[in-house]
Amino acid sequence: MNPRTRKILKWTGGILGFLLLTLAAAAFYIWSRMPKPMGKPPVLQTELFQKPDKEFAVDERFISKSATELAMMIRLKQATSLEITQALIHYIRNNNYKTNAFVWLFEDDALEAAKAADLKVASGDSLGSLHGVPVCIKEQFWVKGKPSTWNSSTFQGFVAPRNDKVVEAWLNEGAIILGLTNVPNMLIDLQTHGDLYPTGSNPYDTTRTPGGSTGGGAAAVASGFCPLSLGGDMGGSIRVPSGYCGIYGLKTTEGSMGKDYGSSPDTTGTGKYFVMAVAGPMARTVDDIELGWNAMIKPWYDNNRWLAVAKDKPLAQYKVAYLDEWHFGSDKIPISNTVKQKLATLVDSLKSNGITTEYAEPPYFAEMRQMHMLLMAYMVFAQQPWVIRQLIKHDFESSTPLKIDLSEGVARIGDIDKEEYKKILQRRDALRDSMEQFFKTYDFLILPVAPGPAFVKNPDHLPMDVDGVKMEYWDHFHYAMCFNATGHPALTIPLGLNSDGLPVAVQVVGPMFSEKRLIHFARMIEHLHDGYVSPK
To answer: Measuring CA to CA, which residue among 143, 355, 218 is closest to residue 208?
Structure first.
């Protein structure tokens, strides 16, 4: 080999070696910045996800009862909290394997709490509104001494050091916590699957999703495992699962519980960009939604200016807007025929009862959806290192484009600009004000909560067929997310089942701090639709 060739090879080898070392260093840097698992995975209660060899005896008297009915039975000494709690625990053990709704069952703790509740009744002590009533809690919320992993290996070893304030609010009213319900990985999906827990299923068809992220809570309530569930909603996570499982679910007004009512296993976060997320009750009846919300909001009730309810206002004096498909430009987010038909039937019933109904689409819907993505960019990704944010941004940009242009929000993931955030909040205020103007013309807005009923499980997030129209997976979020972007309260109302035996629902949206009005209106129209129908 001549000296010139040898020299070229030497330089080439040196350059290649340098490049390899640089790539290895970059890869190590990225790896070092990636979140690491927090401790060891929890040891699951495996029997909870398996059919028992022999079924437990169940006192069927309590399985279909509402929380309101159970609370009254306990108060009047027609039943004890202990026998109600024991019946539900046995019912869960017999049936949870079908849906994996519960991921933790606190049998011993719940029975001890029920015994203590009965002693208070016997001694004539004052009782809270939920005294002795079994409830379930979304795994997102802290229950002292229990796992709060968000179904993610990142937080797999986290144990709650205290109760969430919203959990404490229910406990202060005497609630008995049965256990924690299933969630998707990091609470971000319309399906309930993740790193740690078995996949959640819909009680009406176990091949389908129960929704997300409070999918387990919705499935538990629909299945009769508990009458009341605590859910969380940052992009439809109460309303969509409620709709898919045929129950009521209340997304509360953002800020009505302050910003420190909840918690996260990521205890290093500053909470600076914490917006949109709210807690709310899920139940089979309107009365239970009211009961759960009143108990939940009690610590913060006097801090808010609630819109008054005109209880003597007849239906004929209501004016309601409705929307079946969201149109923008020459395109739309399609809605399945089954949702359109149920919504049309409801609207006809409202009209026949004297309610003025008008087809009306609020202005700036697309801007509201973009706003959700912008706020999420700061809320979820601000703590991530720059290099990680660029990878996430690239992943969003290279995925299948959605019908709604979210490019501004995606771009912001890669550039967390603090000054720009102030302008984004100003834009958000303008969008909220626009919706408030809309509600000066209409009492409420009724529209789909999702494009169709619960869909067949789709772990790869592939495009789906909605009544012959192909939709991208993430386009299913649009109808719910807009009202997280503005902070308005909304109540999912179940409209019974379609011809396939699947629940169909709509959401009713109201002005800020109109929870009382939403609940009152839902009760007034309860007789105009099928509501909750128990799974076979």
So the answer is: 218
| Domain total in the chain | 1
Q: What is the pLDDT of residues 186-206, one digit of tens each?
A: 999 999 999 999 999 999 999
Residue 31, pLDDT score = 44
pLDDT at residue 393, as a whole number: 82
pLDDT of residue 3: 63
Q: pLDDT under 70 in the chain at which residues?
A: 1-36, 266-270
Residue 112 lies in domain: 46-330
β 134-138/469-471 pair status:
unpaired
Q: Is residue 103 part of a domain?
A: yes
Looking at the DSSP bridge assignments, the partners of residue 359 are 322
- Report if residue 80 sits inside a domain: yes
Contact 253, 513 (CB under 8 A): yes
As a whole number of angstroms, the longest Cα–Cα distance in the chain is 103
Q: What CATH number does the domain containing 154 carry?
A: 3.90.1300.10
Please give the Cα distance from 151 to 153 (Å, whole number): 7
Chain CA centroid to CA 425, Å: 23
Q: Is residue 449 part of a domain?
A: no
Q: Which residues contact 420 (CB under 8 A, 6 or more apart)?
A: 412
User: In terms of DSSP bridges, do strands 490-497 and 356-359 run parallel, antiparallel, or are they unpaired?
Assistant: unpaired
Q: Supply angle C-alpha 494, 496, 502, rounded to 5.
A: 100
